[in-house]
Amino acid sequence: MDSQSKRKPNAREIAARIRDEIAAGTFGPGDRLPGGRAYAKKLGVSLMTVQNAYAQLRDEGLVEGISGSGTYVRDTAPGEQAPREAAQRLADLQAEVARLSAGLADMTERVKRLEVAVGSVEEKPGA
User: Fold this and answer.
1) Which of 23, 28, 116, 127 has the fewest CB atoms within 10 Å, i.e. is most exposed?
2) How many CA atoms within 13 Å lie on the side-chain side of 28?
3) CATH 1.10.10.10 fits 11-123, yes or no
4) Domains of the chain by residue range
5) pTM of the entire structure?
């Protein structure tokens, strides 16, 4: 992969990638995520970018950091939603938000076209 020709992922995109991997079962409860420095080098981003992605996943309750050891997919307590299911629900929610955003953009464009059409009718004499 030529890292110069491709756009580097931001923290949100890295978090989404890992979230998808948790949802797919690539990373399961107790699994250690890649080390920040090595992962940053692999992706061609700064260590801070990877740390921000991991912090986002931690805020979502999917992973936990163990000082001096690394970042791990959380193991759940009885009755608590597993990270895999939580990650899948988050991914589903993101897909729904994207679908709704696309629909809203389409509706906005349609309203603009209607406004132009109505404006041109109102400008004609005798309308």
Assistant:
1) 127
2) 1
3) yes
4) 11-123
5) 0.61
